[in-house]
Amino acid sequence: MRLLRSTDLALRVLMRLAVAGETTPTTREVAAAMQVPYTHAAKVVAELQHLGLLEARRGRGGGLALTEKGRTASVGGVVRTFEGDGDVVDCEGSTPCPLNRACRLRGALRRAQEAFFATLDPITVADIVAEPTGPLLLGIPGPV
Q1: CA distances (Å), 29 to each of 62, 108, 121, 126, in order?
Q2: Which residues of 92-108 are buried (b: 16+ CB within 10 A; e: fewer)?
Q3: Which residues of 28-40 are buried (b: 16+ CB within 10 A; e: fewer)?
Q4: Is the bond preceding 135 in cis, omega lying within 30 degrees of 0?
Q5: Is residue 143 scored above 60 in pLDDT?
Q6: Share of the chain above pLDDT 70, in %
């Protein structure tokens, strides 16, 4: 299973903001530090804000800040939100699989996907920035 680019970026933004302290980088600064297009970062930041995981303040002295909900958010929950709840494979797409009615693979893949999420569910954003990760994040060049 491979995470979507937006899921990866959402987790990295949350991690960096978790160790940012009083610093409140802008979305543009986050995009530059993560080396992603501004429009992509803006969509991810908007979704994280909608979820209540970060605050985005405009104007002078504005920027992004992690909320308490963001700090305690489940990594599994964040991944589920960004990845969606679809199947790993599309058995009923434009060309439906001829094995669809009798396939055991689809169920096995669904169980594997749920096990993946279940492994991430108890892990919080705060957990993934604990030492030694947090200090390393602070050492990464960039404004975030």
Answers
A1: 12, 42, 29, 22
A2: eeeeeeeeeeeeeebee
A3: ebbbbbbebeeee
A4: no
A5: no
A6: 92
Return all residues near 49 (Cβ < 8 A) that are at least 6 apart: 55, 56
Q: Identify the three-state secondary structure at position 113.
A: helix
Structure tokens at 10: 């959402």
User: For residue 63, which of 20, 125, 7 has the smallest C-alpha distance?
Assistant: 20
- In the numeric block, the tokens 């709840």 are attached to 85
pLDDT digits (tens, 9 = 90+) for 11-28: 999 998 998 888 898 999
One-letter amino acid of 8: D
pLDDT, tens only, 34-89: 889 999 999 999 999 999 999 998 877 789 999 999 999 999 999 999 998 787 77
| Residue 74: strand pairing partners | 124
